[in-house]
Design goal:
Length: 90
C-alpha cells in the first residue's frame, strides 16, 4: 500500500559510491551515499569537508568514482568505518 508523505526531502535507494584520490602520494578512499549526475559533463558528490579524500581531490584535481557491487561489500564497509585521518594506508 502506498502512502502519500507530501512534498518533503526523503531518503531513497541510491548506490553506494567509493570515491578515491591520491593524498600525499598514497591512495585514499571514502564512501559516499549521495552522488548525482548534474549534466553529461558534471558529477556532484556530497562529501563532508573533513574527509581526507577531499584534500587529495583539491591537491591533484583528480577523483576516482566507483559504484559498489556485491563483490566489494566487505571492502566498502571497511572504507566506511576506518578514517583516513586516523589510519593512514600502508
Amino acid at each position: 500500500m502506498k502512502k502519500n508523505i507530501g512534498a518533503q526531502l526523503a531518503l531513497y535507494p541510491s548506490p553506494v559510491i567509493v570515491v578515491g584520490a591520491m593524498v600525499e602520494g598514497k591512495p585514499n578512499w571514502t564512501l559516499v551515499a549521495h552522488a548525482g549526475t548534474v549534466a553529461h559533463s558534471h558529477l556532484m558528490l556530497s562529501m563532508v569537508s573533513s574527509h581526507r579524500t577531499n584534500k587529495g581531490i583539491k591537491e591533484t584535481g583528480k577523483v576516482s568514482v566507483n559504484v559498489v557491487d556485491e563483490s566489494w561489500l566487505k571492502d566498502a564497509d571497511r572504507m566506511g568505518v576506518i578514517s583516513g585521518n586516523k589510519e593512514l594506508p600502508v
